[in-house]
Amino acid sequence: MAPELLAVAELHEQEAALGGKVWDQVSMKEDGLRRFTRPEVRAILSARVRAAREKDAQAVQMLEKLLVRLGSAYTFGVGRQRS
After folding, report:
1. pLDDT by residue (tens digit) across 17-54?
2. Distances in Å between the alpha carbon of 65 and those of 23, 61, 77, 79?
3. Res 77: pLDDT
4. Tell me, what's the pLDDT at 50?
5. For the purposes of burial, counting CB atoms within 10 Å of the CB of 11, is it exposed (0-12), middle (13-18) or buried (19 or more)?
6. What is the 3-state secondary structure (H, E, C) of the chain?
7. Model pTM?
8. How many CA atoms lie within 13 A of 44 on its CB side?
9. What does the buried/exposed string (b/e) look like for 35-74 if buried means 16 or more CB atoms within 10 Å of the residue's CB?
């Protein structure tokens, strides 16, 4: 179980790193917000957000499989229809 949890943690660390890299391109200051209007900057941001979302989905899938294996699936809603 420990290797699986470490893999989940690693994916979440990668997700957080990708999210942090968004701020390499923009900021909440006027010049940073102005950069957001540039298509090439938005393309970089979109790619990073999509990559972070994929890391999160992978981590959730791994964690759900682990919970099913441990018999705790119902407690956490794994396998139930999501609304």
Report:
1. 998 888 888 888 898 889 889 999 999 999 999 999 99
2. 33, 6, 12, 10
3. 58
4. 95
5. buried
6. CHHHHHHHHHHHHHHHHHHHHHHHCCCCCHHHHHHCCCHHHHHHHHHHHHHHHHHHHHHHHHHHHHHHHHCCHHHHCCCCCCC
7. 0.72
8. 13
9. beeeeeeeebbeebeebbeebbebbeeebeebbeeeeebe
To the nearest 10 degrees (0 to 180), the angle between helices 2-20 and 39-70 is: 160
| Alpha carbon separation from 80 to 57, 66, 74, 75, 76 (Å, rounded) | 17, 16, 8, 10, 9
Query: What are the residues whose beta carbons fall under 8 Å from the beta carbon of 6, sequence distance 6 or more?
Result: none
Gap between the Cα atoms of 66 and 62, Å rounded: 6
Q: Which two tokens stand for residue 28?
A: 């909440």
